[in-house]
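In the current project phase, we have settled on a layout for protein records. One protein thus recorded is set out beneath this paragraph:
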Amino acid sequence: MAMPSTSLTADDKAINDWTAAIKKHPKVIENYLHRGAAYERRGQLQNAIYDFSQVIKLSPGDPTVLEARGFAYLKLGMQEKGLADFNESVKRYPDNYFRHIVRASAYERLKQNEKAIEDYNLAIKLAPEQPFLYDSRAKANMRLKNFAKALEDCNKAISMVPHNRLKNQYGDLFVHRSWVYRDMHKLPEALADCDTAISFEPDELSKIPPRITDRDSAWNECFLKLSTARSTRGMIYAEQHELDKALQDLNMAIKFTPKRAICYSARGKLYRDLGMPQKASDDFASAKRLKSAEEV
């Protein structure tokens, strides 16, 4: 009978190594910082909070550690303590637009989109030349169904970026605007924006499955953008009853990101509409399992 594996994961080894380093050098902040990050990746949030707190005691001037602890608190449902860390970060660096962005993302996590928009407004006043700030505010306005304001911000963000940079880095701006158009029931405009975003796909990436690990963040971000464009267009095709085109896009989205619940949920609905109940059931089960994993 095969014995269960006792091999250490990369994070297990990292925690052991940083724990040994802390015993030798208990006042070196990098040791706590790295161990805290490893604990957070493993979901051991109380341990991560302890290590981040040690860093804050030893070096109280770094806002990123306050924010890391804040997000760990939020994940544990400790809203008051989490927001206190984000507020302290902004209080220390009120003229740093990025501190407002991070607090806005915390408010979004708590579904407090009005407060998130207040921080995006402040960030835009501090750095009006940054297109991604308008894009972020647009998404917050979308969640509040302020579609006219969301569309205005999407248009602003797209207009600020030169075409060559749009192609290389900012194709997802068109996807985000397509979300606004879709919610405004302007499906032809939404579809045109998805087509534009997908036209930016590198040819070689659309031909191969992603062979990457969960730790390859740069590649994962790239595939997530590709998947989002395809899944969005697939859902628009489904609304237009172009089911074959919808299935092709959703299959490609899952090829790019095989662990993304929303793609399986959308494809499950499509299989149901196509009269394929077993495939629909399988996809709904995958979506439920992956969504549970995402919420951990």
Observations:
- The two ends are 32 Å apart (CA to CA).
- Confidence is low (pLDDT under 50) at residues 1-6.
- Residues 217-239 form the longest helix (23 residues).
